[in-house]
Fold this sequence. Notes:
With 305 residues, this protein is α/β, with parallel strands linked by helices. It is built from twelve helices and twelve strands. A hairpin with a 2-residue loop joins strand 9 and strand 10. It has helices at 12-23, 35-44, 80-90, 109-116, 161-166, 177-197, 209-225, 229-232, 235-245, 252-258, 269-278, 284-299, and strands spanning 5-8, 28-32, 47-51, 54-58, 61-64, 71-76, 94-102, 121-127, 130-135, 138-143, 147-150, 171-173. The strands form two sheets. An eight-stranded mixed β-sheet has the order 5-2-1-6-7-8-11-12, sandwiched between helices. It has a four-stranded mixed β-sheet with strand order 4-3-10-9, with helices on one face. It is 44% helix and 21% strand. Bound molecules: NADP nicotinamide-adenine-dinucleotide phosphate. InterPro entries: 6-PGluconate_DH-like_C_sf (IPR008927), 6PGD_dom2 (IPR013328), ApbA (IPR003710), Ketopantoate_reductase (IPR050838), KPA_reductase (IPR013752), KPR_N (IPR013332), NAD(P)-bd_dom_sf (IPR036291).
Amino acid sequence: xxxxxxxxxxxxxxxxxxxxxxxxxxxxxxxxxxxxxxxxxxxxxxxxxxxxxxxxxxxxxxxxxxxxxxxxxxxxxxxxxxxxxxxxxxxxxxxxxxxxxxxxxxxxxxxxxxxxxxxxxxxxxxxxxxxxxxxxxxxxxxxxxxxxxxxxxxxxxxxxxxxxxxxxxxxxxxxxxxxxxxxxxxxxxxxxxxxxxxxxxxxxxxxxxxxxxxxxxxxxxxxxxxxxxxxxxxxxxxxxxxxxxxxxxxxxxxxxxxxxxxxxxxxxxxxxxxxxxxxxxxxxxxxxxxxxxxxxxxxxxxxxx
Length: 305
Ligand code: NAP
């Protein structure tokens, strides 16, 4: 019998992982925030995965944060701003040598989580898969992609990557996971805030080419200064390529703001500006962008952290 996967957070990505693991016959348990959410989940009869128009429901077992079953492997699938507090509530349930897989976008939340569970192994992930909820306990697999996983402390992959292969989750072990996370953060900082401020799809930034190029130059300087020169390589051309390739899409930050949801700004542009300040690096365009975004979110009554 393989080790149980506990999945913390049955949102878009957590449900996408949980349903695929369950479909492969692997033991999975969801961890939901409280008794009310657990009752709602049980009333729905499971999690539904919608893939290429086909729906399939999986009656995956679930429990609340306050359960006392031991946890050997935890997939953390909350938003970056919820991860530390949620994992802290589970820390006493982790078995010695437990593994945590952190799916959060951006940077900052991974270190905060790892500091709360010093005896566990924390793996970081960066994913290009896309999913969204079209209802409670329902997830739509919107964009096939890839997930890179790595451990900044140990280069050896865990044996259970085989579970991901069995579940059909495309993945690769990456010994430079921080470089990948920094690169993704830089792409996000160059594109997402401007789509919010200009109220446009990604392609709308083609009209703001100079502004994007200036931001890329400052972001590349930051990456170099933070010891991530590989993440800075050809950044402007990749940003341009992503804008072209995703011209018709609305960025994740745009969608969060449009739907009145909290953004992950504190772990993206906020993290970048804090890192620049730590290094006494003056990046005027990046910090102006941050101030404009904070003002915009505040005016909409949304948190700016
Ligand atoms: P999401 O749909 O908002 O799901 C987050 C889930 O976490 C929600 O179901 C929420 O519960 C749950 N949660 C929060 N605090 C909790 C707690 N204390 N205990 C139990 N559950 C808790 O978010 P997402 O889109 O899956 O994103 C998760 C992370 O993956 C983010 O960092 C995101 O940037 C990253 N990511 C997402 C995608 C994507 O396509 N969605 C792609 C790449 C990366 P409730 O339902 O009760 O609110």
